[in-house]
């Protein structure tokens, strides 16, 4: 597929300019399949950006099987202030829900394997920002040459993280130029069962032995996940 970024400036409620950064990932069979959309803005909250994304996907469904990106951009330019207004009114309703209530799709666990990190400090900082923005928890784990990213959160946020991971320039190539992550494997993507433990925070950790790494998984109630996917990486 094709991925491209678009930045647009939109007049918002108080006639201030809002700079919207839109990322569209068009699958190979677009427009028969909906694009993946990511929305960010320094002037909007993460929740507002998620609402803008949801509204764009709603509009996209109306244009299925016909080119739609230009229409979506025009639509959000005209309707952004109404989306933000609506977002403010539903925000309070969401916060009054009990903590035990999760979204329709529930909480998911994602396990990724990275081949390498050349620009490690920058890469780690980028992952930490994405995880924070998307309200995900988990671990970025280093053990010898093995690099794993274990994440938990709402399914829609997990999906958005994957889009960012695959389409953003997060590392550098052998010549030092910024590049996208091409050596990534999705080892597992599964729903968290109600009785399972969950990570409360996101941490970057280094382990000197496989036993230490295994204990991290066991503490989170993910022993099966470890047994199935981690040992084969050592072969």
UniProtKB/TrEMBL annotation:
It holds the Pfam family RWD. The lineage of its organism: Eukaryota, Metazoa, Chordata, Craniata, Vertebrata. One of its GO terms (cellular component) is nucleus. It is found in: Cytoplasm; Nucleus. CDD domains: RWD_RWDD3, RWDD3_C. This is RWD domain-containing protein 3. Keywords: Cytoplasm, Nucleus. Residues 1-83 form the RWD domain. InterPro entries: RWD_dom, RWDD3, UBQ-conjugating_enzyme/RWD. GO terms for biological process: positive regulation of hypoxia-inducible factor-1alpha signaling pathway; positive regulation of protein sumoylation. It comes from the Eukaryota. It comes from Eolophus roseicapilla.
């Amino acid at each position: 597929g094709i991925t491209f970024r678009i930045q647009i400036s939109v007049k918002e409620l108080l006639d201030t300019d809002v700079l919207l950064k839109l990322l569209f990932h068009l699958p190979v069979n677009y427009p028969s399949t909906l694009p993946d959309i990511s929305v960010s803005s320094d002037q909007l909250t993460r929740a507002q950006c998620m609402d803008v994304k949801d509204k764009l996907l709603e509009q996209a469904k109306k244009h299925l099987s016909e080119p739609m990106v230009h229409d979506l951009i025009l639509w959000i330019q005209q309707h952004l202030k109404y989306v933000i207004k609506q977002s403010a009114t539903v925000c309070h309703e969401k916060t009054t829900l009990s903590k035990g209530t999760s979204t329709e799709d529930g909480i998911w666990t994602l396990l990724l394997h990275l081949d390498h990190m050349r620009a490690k400090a920058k890469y780690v900082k980028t992952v930490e920002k994405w995880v924070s923005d998307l309200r995900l928890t988990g671990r970025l784990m280093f053990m010898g040459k093995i690099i794993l990213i274990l994440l938990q959160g709402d399914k829609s946020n997990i999906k958005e993280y994957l889009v960012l991971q695959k389409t953003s320039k997060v590392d550098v190539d052998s010549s030092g130029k910024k590049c996208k992550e091409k050596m990534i494997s999705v080892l597992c993507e599964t729903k968290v069962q109600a009785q399972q433990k969950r990570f409360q925070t996101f941490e970057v950790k280094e382990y000197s032995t496989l036993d230490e790494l295994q204990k991290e998984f066991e503490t989170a109630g993910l022993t099966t996940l470890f047994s199935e996917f981690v040992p084969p990486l050592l072969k």
